[in-house]
Amino acid sequence: MRRTTAFAASLLLLATALSTVGGPVAAADPTDPVTVTVNTRAGLATVPETALGVNHAIWDSQLGSAETSDLLKAAGVKMLRYPGGSYADIYHWETHTAPGGYVAPNTDFDTFMAGARRVGAQPMIIANYGTGTPAEAAAWVRYANVTKGYGAKWWTVGNENYGNGHYGSAWEADDHPDKSAAQYARLVVEYADAMKAVDPSIKVGAVLTMPGNWPDGITAGSDPGPWNQTVLSLAGPKIDFVDVHWYPGGNAADSLARTNHLPDAAWLLRQQIARYAGPGADRIGISFTELNVDAGRTTAPGALFLADAYSGLLEQGVFTVQWWNVHNGIGTVSEVAGQTDYGDFGMLSSGNCTSDGEVCQPAFNTPFAPYHALSMMNLFARPGDQLVRAGTDEPLVAAHAVRRPDGSVAVLLLNKDPDNAHPVALDYAGFTPADEAPTVHTLANGATGISTGRSGSATVRTLPPYSLTTLVLRPAGSSAGRPGAPGRPTAGAVTDRAATISWPAATPGASPIAKYEVHRQYGAVSEQLGETAGTSLTVGNLEPGARYTVNVLARDTAGRVSWSSPPLTFATGSPAESSCAVRFNDDNDWGNGYVANVEVINTGAKAVDGWTLTWTWPTAWQQVSSGWSATWDQQGRNVRVTPTADNRRLAADGGSTTVGFVGAYSGPNVPPGAFRLNGTVCTLR
Hints:
This is Alpha-L-arabinofuranosidase. By secondary structure, the protein is α+β, with helices and mostly antiparallel strands. It contains ten helices and 38 strands. The longest helix has 18 residues.
């Protein structure tokens, strides 16, 4: 976390500038039932043991206290980060000092570890990159795991090191004369080598930036590319995970809407890892170790954002999500939906007052709304549960779901509407709930805790304004005897129109396996692409340049169906041969906009006299702001480009023209996957 919240706010304004598309969608009539679809056939990631995390900081004298630790344990915290955001880059563990910053008593490493053990959480430790050395980090590993036997597995090199001034803004300490991304990457290699020489079993992570957030896409100095590309290209073979932060910014409605960026951000991040990190890049995990909001930090917006973001990131296979932070202190006080918001990044009260003494927080360690949301996550998604696809037809109502090893299903419902209750009607695919009242956990706006009881039905519910509700549903019948889930699929021989999906065989249950079914996730529903008695299937009729997420299910001779396999996401390409080709270059990116050149090439045997180039943006927050050398038009996500008088003719066998535009984006900037010239899909060069 940045050391001054004012600067954080200014940075977030920079990161969300030109946010002219994909704004809040008007809600439907709140008296109309919202349709919620829960599809247990559309499996997502499995909840890891380290899923629920928070940050501790060395300015918090109670970080290791029994009271604080017991509160975190009760909320289900399984990972604790130390020594605290940007402080990590000025902190020296051996002397327990942070020159230029405040270090509270009772915050040394051993005290932190004692608290972590009381919580039952694994530590994630930030090695000092800004003012430290590889030798200092290696000595910390030696002390932690050799001298003390703590078994500390997770170590990150630095905090927000792209904030060292290399891109213009400087809040992160960095004493190195060379502040480039390349120098950070080279030193990450030195840190990893030194630390693993002491304990080869540890996992070392490098700092990346969230796709779509500053300084994503910006190349500075002599770096070979933007921060993520440079760090992964040079340090990828040495690291085990990447570490990312996300502060979505904006008002409460903005931050609650921006959770829909997460699938595309995770996709881009994995694409960057796969492209730049070298052989075996699929071993590299992703951690999100700082999240919070600008508005409603201690009230319902913070709680709703926490539950929605944690769920969304865990669905994408992130191995830990960590709130910023446990205790922080009072900030700007406001009223949010009838509740006092203390502007505090902490999820537990620090018990302090504004500088004028006019407003004081509740007693120390009083839980704020995000704490209760974390407790709700612990009731909803437990280690070993498989997240499954869920969706709604109302933008102010969100849904997430898990299927548990005992066959039960839990559904998390979020009402992001501060003013209206929303009735919901739930529909289930691949699961039949028992005819009984479900267990219901509810966190209402302003509540001091989660209420739990059994009431209503599995299919109808009314969600109070600004609330979180979890339903826990038992299955109508027994799942005994069903086959095991197939293993994780892989995609091979991917073209523009086809792909071969392969998977490890499932373990039979009470009856032999009869066949496997391959299903595409299409929103919250599934579309069967095909079936086979084997463990490989070539699927055709795919769209060029499109992203597909598929699952495999096993069905036995008695008709019993397995849980879904882990998901596979892949993208089709462009045709190997076509009568046209396109070269799309993002030439000058500044973090929320860029200049692009598009070369249009006629590879056919006949000249083209008059042309229309079209593509569809992958997201609603991307747009063409202005263009040149052509006539540009965007309707919704669809872009149409037509020539001027002097470039309408493209000669045969390679005749080309280059046109350009200024693009803008307010979320992950996913490049177009397919371009069409006069309706023909072009080869993308």
